[in-house]
Specification:
There is one protein chain. With 159 residues, the chain is mostly beta strands. The chain has one domain: E3 ubiquitin-protein ligase SopA (Pectate Lyase C-like, 3 Solenoid), CATH 2.160.20. Helices cover 9% and strands 31% of the residues. The chain has one helix at residues 138-152, and strands at 19-20, 30-32, 34-37, 40-42, 50-52, 55-57, 60-62, 70-72, 75-77, 80-82, 90-92, 95-97, 100-102, 110-112, 115-117, 120-122, 130-131. The longest helix has 15 residues, at 138-152. The protein is globular, with a radius of gyration of 16 Å. 28% of the residues are buried.
């Protein structure tokens, strides 16, 4: 499977429809054709929200809860998710470029046709998540090798 190159905002098929986001993210909210540019969300309770054909540029999410939210055809660029609860979320046809996910809960989530380009994952919990066709670099594989070996029951001994 070939990973598509990252897109710029104007290359999105829905870019001409995007409106600037003004307001707050609310629980069970529906957000379509919105551009979250430079937005900062602190301790937001936005669970069960749906984001469709929207873009996030230089947005920051700190300690919020978005459990059971849905991200359909969402584009993210230089987004920071720190201590954010994204557990049980669904991601479809989305992409994130140059993002940082630190201390983020994404367990028991589903990601289909979702791509992360040049993102940093630090203490991210993906336990029980479904990643269809996950692609990582050789360097990332070497970093993950000990955890993957433990997960499949391999014991690696030195010579």
């Amino acid at each position: 499977m070939r990973v598509p190159a990252p897109r710029d905002l104007p290359a999105l098929p829905y870019a001409h429809r995007l409106e600037p986001f003004a307001g707050e993210i609310e629980r069970e909210g529906a957000y379509e054709w919105l551009h979250f540019d430079g937005s900062v969300f602190e301790d937001v309770q936005g669970g069960s929200s749906q984001f469709s054909e929207s873009a996030f540029s230089s947005a920051a999410f700190h300690r919020g809860r978005y459990r059971r939210s849905r991200f359909d055809d969402v584009w993210m660029h230089t987004v920071r998710m720190v201590g954010t609860d994204l557990a049980e979320t669904t991601w479809l046809d989305s992409e994130c470029t140059a993002g940082v996910f630190a201390g983020t809960e994404i367990h028991v989530s589903e990601m289909h046709r979702t791509v992360f380009h040049q993102c940093k994952f630090d203490s991210v919990n993906l336990r029980g998540s479904t990643l269809k066709g996950a692609t990582i670099s050789p360097v990332q594989l070497l970093d993950l090798a000990p955890a993957l070996a433990r997960h499949v029951g391999l014991t690696v001994k030195g010579t």
